[in-house]
Specification:
five-stranded parallel sheet
Length: 356
């Protein structure tokens, strides 16, 4: 009879992986982890401090700028979108403004009413004597969502830390859950979001080098931060006028939530002890007939708010001719000079205002 021998039982020592097996496993896990950690440290400590966060670096710089009181006083803080950024040179404004008054152009390209409200508490904490808000007729219905890059940049710039404790997403109609969470994000989440900062910087440099008519401007320029140095004409201008008018009409189909936000901002400025200045931005003459009623509504709203909140209206709607626009929205060099001086003159009532 054949006897089948059972294999010897494994000892405790033989059941453990050999060092020769552990070493490759360690390399597979630890080395990538160390590489990721090193990459993050380089991103946070070297790349971001040197190159910034790309196209939204101006937002981060604005947050840092507002950490100190605006000076010299009294200062008018100019908030708004690219029409204000491209349209106002504060040196020209100062030449016609009341003696002793100064202005800083804090405008951010693409800035909506929602976005200005994100900025406002930190702006007011910097103690401006007056805050000017640039407005267009379509802003009456405007409740835009916010690009995630911008939302993370506002978080990185410290804007949310200045908000009232009871503010929630409901205070920003139209802002998505994702954008609101980005606004409330941690520093770690912010840095991880901007891990593509180097690529963004390269894209910006390519844009500046190969697109004619763009001016290189520092993100912390609060004097004359315009980028456009060209004029759009002929068929391109006609197409831009048509697309802009279409966008304006679409926004005005919405409920007038934008008007409610404008009123809240005027109230917040007034209650903070600053003067609310409501600027009706220049509008291309080609839009005149299509925007008659929205313009009437905006003028009525700003007049009422200025009266009730001890503010000032600067109606620049018709101040520029068609030849003083670079495209359907933005003033060109001639328009910038006319508009800047016009706003300075319009601030004359501030001459009798007690200065901070």
């Amino acid at each position: 009879m054949t006897t089948i021998e059972e294999p010897p039982a494994k000892t405790a020592a033989s059941s453990e992986p050999s060092p020769s097996v552990l070493r490759p496993i360690a390399r597979m896990i630890l080395l990538p982890a160390l590489g990721a950690l090193l990459g993050f440290v380089l991103l946070e400590k070297v790349l971001l401090p040197i190159i910034g966060v790309g196209s939204v670096e101006r937002i981060v710089q604005l947050g840092q700028h507002l950490d100190e009181p605006l000076s010299p006083a009294p200062t008018v803080a100019l908030l708004g979108n690219s029409i204000t950024r491209e349209g106002i040179d504060t040196r020209l404004l100062a030449e016609s403004a009341p003696a002793g008054w100064h202005a800083q152009n804090l405008a951010i390209s693409g800035c909506s009413i929602n976005e200005m409200r994100v900025q406002l508490p930190k702006v007011l904490a910097a103690r401006p004597a007056a805050v000017a808000i640039g407005l267009r007729p379509e802003d009456l219905g405007r409740t835009d969502d916010m690009d995630l890059d911008k939302a993370f940049a506002y978080a990185k710039g410290g804007f949310v830390t200045a908000w009232p404790m009871d503010w929630t997403r409901a205070d920003f109609p139209g802002i998505s859950v994702e954008a609101y969470e980005a606004l409330r994000s941690t520093p770690l989440a912010q840095d991880m979001h901007f891990r593509t900062a180097l690529l963004n910087m390269i894209n910006q440099e390519v844009r500046l080098r190969f697109r004619r008519g763009l001016r290189r401007v520092a993100p912390d320029n609060w004097t004359d931060p315009y980028e456009m140095a060209f004029n759009v004409r002929d068929n391109r201008l006609e197409r831009h006028l048509e697309s802009t008018l279409h966008d304006m009409r679409e926004l005005l189909k919405e409920e007038r939530t934008g008007a409610t936000l404008i009123e809240k901002m005027a109230t917040e400025i007034h209650e903070a002890g600053a003067i609310p200045i409501l600027i009706i931005l220049p509008m291309h003459p080609a839009f005149g007939d299509d925007m008659l009623q929205p313009v009437t509504d905006l003028r009525a709203l700003t007049a009422r708010l200025a009266s009730e909140r001890s503010g000032l209206v600067v109606d620049a709607l018709d101040v520029l001719s068609a030849n003083e626009f670079a495209d359907a929205l933005h003033p060109n060099a001639e328009g910038r000079e006319v508009y800047s001086r016009f706003v300075g003159h319009a601030l004359e009532p501030l001459a009798t205002t007690s200065k901070k």
